[in-house]
Amino acid sequence: MKKDLINHLVFLLLYFILITLVKKYFSFSFWPFWVGGLVGLFLSNVDHLLHVFVFKPYELTSQRVIALMKAKRFKETLILLYDTKNERTNLIFHSLNFQIIFLILMFWLLSSSGNLFGRGLVLSFLLNLVIFLLIKIKTNEIILIDNNKSKLYFIGVFLMLFIFGFLF
To answer: Do both 63 and 130 map to the same domain?
Structure first.
């Protein structure tokens, strides 16, 4: 769990430092951009909580998580959620339909709003999506109809990450 969190934080820091250097976000007034990035880092995993508490609370893992939460054993809850993350399939934020809608809304937000918090949040969320897709491709899990289309989709999302990060 710590390794994944550190990997995500390193990618986030490198990406945001690169954006800060290119866009010259050196003033302290750009702190909402960084805070939005940290919030977006954790927001992309909310679908695991939705799965446990809303969509499938009757599953054994969900019941164990709920029991741990009621006992206020939060660290054990996080460990259990992490250890069983591969059991949860068809998560909302990781579905292809959500990703396409998210990219459209992200373009709209970045092109029409100057809100730095929102910009950091959606760019961090997109970075986590790219990392998720990269992991799926490295493990040969098919996202689309076949592996070639999945790789093309990953390349497209990866390019959007840099286009959205540096042009808007």
So the answer is: no
